[in-house]
């Protein structure tokens, strides 16, 4: 009886293990190839005043993230990981993958040819509109103390703003080694757990493919990094996070705040930058050093401790969504994560004081 139960457990979660391991392995194997080709072709990101790295870096790592996620997802499709879905759900998964390919291609072209901000934004809205027309849309939201609110014609602009906003939020937070990939991996993993608890296993499966790709990429991207994801990677990740949250969280959530909590750190960073630039009467799309990671570096945190600080903040903030959806033992998860996060915050602050003492000496 025990053996049968154990086999059932392994069988139920085999697809998730396949999704993570498959994506992780593909990225692990493909990054050196992508890096070698990019160096041979001279496709590197040069240092400048607003950037932290001091040597030329390959910034086409998004190719590996995209390939790893797509290979794992299509592999799952082939072996039957999505076989229990209804036709409508099959269409949603395919639209998400095709939309992700469109955003990756847009970002990849930007990496190669430096497209203008206006053209990028127009293309982002165009792809998001096509995705919306195929049913990946925010049609209603559930607001605490109010109930279900149907959006009607507002569905299109709200969906477009959400998708384009998340794409740019991930793109803008990609300023330090391992920052965007780590924050995205944490947020996507939390999203996958919530999707599972809400009866959205197919969306969770797709999310795990992305988590596997991001973890594989972190092997090469964590400080000191040897490759960057570039706009191709950040656009793809942002789109996948946005649409996974639409199909897995917003439509079935008990409150519209869930995706906002899970993705609080990149959203806060984007809003901080926009407000800061507008106050200084600059274009929101004009690059500067007003991001959260720039501010933490400025007060004295090291590169690595800044990244770990933001990781801990992302994990701690995201886990509060477990309480809203009433995941079993959600309160215990918060109780376990909180001291870990506070320990990292404290150690990061101590490293700041130590670094300042060395400067004063």
UniProtKB/TrEMBL annotation:
Q: Which CDD domains match?
A: GT_WecA_like (cd06853)
> What keywords does the record list, in alphabetical order?
Cell membrane, Membrane, Transferase, Transmembrane, Transmembrane helix
Looking up Pfam families in the UniProt record yields: Glycos_transf_4
What transmembrane ranges does the database entry give?
Answer: 13-37, 58-79, 91-109, 121-141, 147-167, 179-199, 205-222, 234-250, 256-279, 305-323, 329-349
MF-aspect GO terms: transferase activity
Q: Which PROSITE patterns match?
A: MRAY_2 (PS01348)
- Coiled-coil stretches are none
Q: How does it sit in the membrane?
A: Multi-pass membrane protein
Its chief place of residence is membrane
Q: Where in the cell is it found?
A: Cell membrane
What is the protein name for this chain?
Undecaprenyl/decaprenyl-phosphate alpha-N-acetylglucosaminyl 1-phosphate transferase
Q: Which organism is it from?
A: Leptothoe kymatousa TAU-MAC 1615
Upper classification of the organism? Bacteria, Bacillati, Cyanobacteriota, Cyanophyceae, Nodosilineales
